[in-house]
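Hi support team,

I've been running sequence recovery on a batch of backbones for a student project. Most finish fine, but this one hangs at about 90% for roughly twenty minutes before it completes. I'm not sure whether the input is malformed or the queue is just slow. I've pasted the structure tokens below so you can try to reproduce it. Let me know if you need the job ID as well.

Thanks,
M.K.
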């Protein structure tokens, strides 16, 4: 049987319809990694750990940390409960470049977390019963959410009035439980529990999804059409305001479900997105360029609604295209385990939990020190990452705290 393995892999490699070569030097390794994890058990696909998905989740959380630090050095940072650190020196070039990047990222940096969470839940369900899956998600997501609601959120909110000159009694009077920057866990956890309930009620759904093999373009088209429909129905006043947007719960649920279907399709969608990633990015850029001047004018005028249904359709399509391109580029780059990637993946969620209070304290202590916005941004992000990593090293030694910060019980960092 072992002697027959090379021949089987050669047949697998030559299958251009399901795993096209398309000339990229990384993709033979990608297909081999998919082959190694492509085993069948009762007709179901069982895939090896997807390191590209782990890396993409870490990148998405790091972008959130970077975005929050950027908001704190802008004049509107105080509106979001951030201690503002706005240097007196004007920086028109920095403002223009960072705003263009923000406009590009804001429409998909949160939805991709829902997409990746759906993929992760599918892989977890392969090794757990529905009850065990629900318990694991409650521990890994529910405990950090509860900790954020009762400790991190109120603690972060307490720093803001104190930095503005309020007395301690006045600041304490404003305390309310809130999830703050962990708000998206309030959506991801119900999505995961609903999927576990579906597996419990309909035991055969996982086998059906495993053998169901729609073409990747069909998955992408149906998912994109659903996002467009949600956007047209809700018509959010600010599409980028995921925290309070009326479209966020349904938009997130559809992205979560799409992640489940993409993961269930095995390595086929992975190879397809990797093949078309450069073209998808080009299409997304073509949709992004005409959106920039209108978005800038929209914020300057205070008129948040897009002018017509065409704009809503275009921004929803652009969001889906960016997410798919990100999946493809991640599959190209992160083909296997790497020590620094594993360390970043394990550390990023605990660091994210702590980053906002660390950011507010740093901005409060150094608000009059910075000469430029670029310097302020670099220092804030560096301090957040350094302090967060040190604190996580400390709490990693205590089993209860490991669970509170979303770490696994075993391993140096848990991840």
């Amino acid at each position: 049987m072992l002697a027959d393995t090379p021949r089987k892999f050669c047949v697998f490699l030559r299958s251009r319809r399901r795993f096209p070569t398309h000339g990229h030097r990384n993709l033979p390794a990608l297909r081999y990694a998919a082959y190694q994890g492509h085993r069948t058990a009762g007709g179901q696909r069982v895939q090896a750990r997807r390191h590209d998905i782990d890396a993409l989740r870490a990148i998405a959380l790091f972008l959130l940390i970077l975005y929050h630090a950027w908001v704190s050095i802008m004049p509107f940072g105080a509106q979001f409960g951030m201690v503002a650190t706005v240097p007196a020196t004007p920086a028109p070039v920095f403002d223009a470049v960072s705003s263009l990047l923000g406009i590009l990222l804001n429409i998909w940096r949160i939805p991709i977390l829902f997409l990746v969470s759906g993929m992760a839940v599918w892989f977890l369900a392969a090794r757990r019963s529905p009850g065990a899956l629900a318990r694991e998600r409650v521990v890994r997501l529910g405990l950090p959410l509860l900790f954020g609601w009762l400790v991190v959120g109120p603690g972060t909110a307490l720093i803001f009035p104190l930095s503005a000159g309020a007395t301690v009694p006045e600041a304490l009077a404003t305390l309310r439980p809130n999830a703050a920057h962990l708000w998206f866990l309030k959506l991801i956890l119900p999505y995961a529990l609903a999927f576990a309930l579906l597996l419990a009620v309909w035991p055969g759904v996982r086998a059906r999804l495993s053998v169901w093999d729609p073409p990747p373009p069909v998955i992408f088209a149906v998912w994109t059409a659903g996002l467009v429909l949600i956007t047209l129905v809700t018509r959010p006043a600010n599409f980028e305001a995921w925290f309070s947007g009326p479209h966020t719960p349904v938009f997130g649920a559809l992205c979560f479900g799409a992640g489940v279907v993409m993961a269930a399709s095995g390595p086929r969608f992975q190879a397809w997105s990797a093949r078309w990633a450069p073209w998808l990015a080009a299409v997304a850029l073509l949709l992004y360029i005409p959106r920039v001047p209108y978005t800038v004018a929209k914020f300057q005028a205070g008129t948040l609604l897009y002018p017509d249904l065409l704009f809503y359709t275009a921004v929803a399509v652009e969001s889906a295209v960016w997410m798919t391109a990100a999946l493809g580029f991640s599959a190209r780059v992160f083909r296997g385990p790497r020590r620094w990637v594993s360390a970043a993946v394990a550390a990023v969620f605990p660091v994210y939990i702590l980053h906002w209070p660390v950011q507010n304290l740093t901005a409060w202590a150094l608000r009059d020190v910075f000469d430029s916005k670029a310097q302020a941004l670099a220092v804030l992000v560096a301090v957040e990452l350094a302090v967060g990593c040190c604190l996580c090293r400390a709490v990693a030694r205590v089993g209860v705290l490991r669970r509170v910060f979303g770490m696994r019980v075993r391993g140096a960092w848990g991840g």
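--
Follow-up from support: It reproduced on our side and the slowdown came from queue contention, not your input. The two ends are 35 Å apart (CA to CA). No action needed from you.
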